[in-house]
Amino acid sequence: MLENILQSLVRLDHMAWYYLNVQWHNPFLDNIIPFFRNPWFWAPLYLFLLIFMPLKFGAKGWLWCLAFVITFALSDFVCASLLKPFFHRLRPCHNPWLNGIVHMLIDCGGQYGFPSNHAANHFSLGIFAAITTGKMAGWVWPVAIFWALLVAYAQVYVGAHFPLDVVCGGLLGIVIAVCTGKIFNRYCGLGNKAPKN
Q: How many domains does the chain have?
């Protein structure tokens, strides 16, 4: 029973991947989508946050930056060092059954892809930011979710991951962010006192 469910899930995953990676692409998106999953493309955003938060919130801003980095480190470690070596699920570009089919726009990367580090990391950072600042700026929630979804979609589009890789990576990132975000809000929430001018 469970084996049949897993096989059906994998078939659906492969079918979704086929449309997202092989069928639904065009030269315009081929040129821009790879940027969205490149960490260097988002480096100015990270730099802005690491400067803005201490300037705006003082010592709490520095603690926020530390928690932000810890959130990233946790999601990255769990994916790369614990889960990928355990599941051993090949990336599309390393799957011999898909040789010659994958629409590959980047270097293939590591052999295993489940769960996606990119998805986990960006969902963890986005949800952490939303949980810790969302009460002060409601727009953070939709922007953070859209940003994480965009990165996750890009991972499938460029051929680096199956959809299930990014879905599970995203869920893992959300769980980690909820934990770190709630801990941060409880002990040093930004809204506990008025921020510095």
A: 1
